[in-house]
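Please, structure for the following, as tokens.
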Amino acid sequence: MYCSVGNVASRRIITLLTDFGLKDPYVASMKGVMYSINPEVIVVDISHNISSFDIQEGAFVLACAFKYFPKGTVHVVVVDPGVGTERRGIVVESNNYLFVGPDNGVLMLAAHIDGARRVVEITNRKYMRSKITHTFHGRDIFAPVAAYLSLGVSISEIGKEIEDYMVPKFVKPEYSRDKVKAYVIHIDKFGNVITNVTSRIVFEELKWSYGQKLIVELPGGESMLVPFQKSYGFVKKGTPLLLIDSEDFLELAINMGSAAEEFGIARGALITIYPSSNSSV
């Protein structure tokens, strides 16, 4: 009844991530469409509290959550300020998952982390609702497509493969040799500055190691020498450090302080990081 991505587990789980909130009927309507097509599917809510229209926030939350689900899960994201325009609907197949949503970049951070294999534009009306409104593609297109994918419909049946899909600048950091230009994708409650640089890039591409001293060039032009450590407690209170956070991203932090406030860093900023010639702490 179910098919798989490669040789991975069956697609019986669909996740939902939206900026809809829970006051209105939008989330329930999407679930109703999916259950009508596949009554056996398991639908899991990641969040419906993404800030309205905030594509980058949606992409970050998806990138944090997607990997904890079984292989073959279908992840649906509706943060879609361009709904009803010429923006396309897409399905992204990665090494282990399928992602369904608008072609506005919200899917691509997670898909890139998992290894995006192909992207198709959703065009086959057979897998959409018979009536498609201009303002609710989440219910009329993305929900039914996800449900049919959970039943084993091939991604190739959904539409034709495309290569000109949108990849926002926050998806892929710029790096060469041991130097990286990191994009700030999130500031958390504690003022930790979370970048789009993953541990794979840090250890496999940049070849950094814990205990190194790294130079951090801030958006305002200032530079500082910062230790790269495993966790906050390896430095004294009030001391800045770099670390790999619990979601596998490189983070600039201050032990028991706010790096964002201290250094005036906002989401969307670029910080350049590279080793000091004096490489050990």
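The chain has seven helices and 15 strands. Residues 1-11 have pLDDT under 50 and may be disordered.
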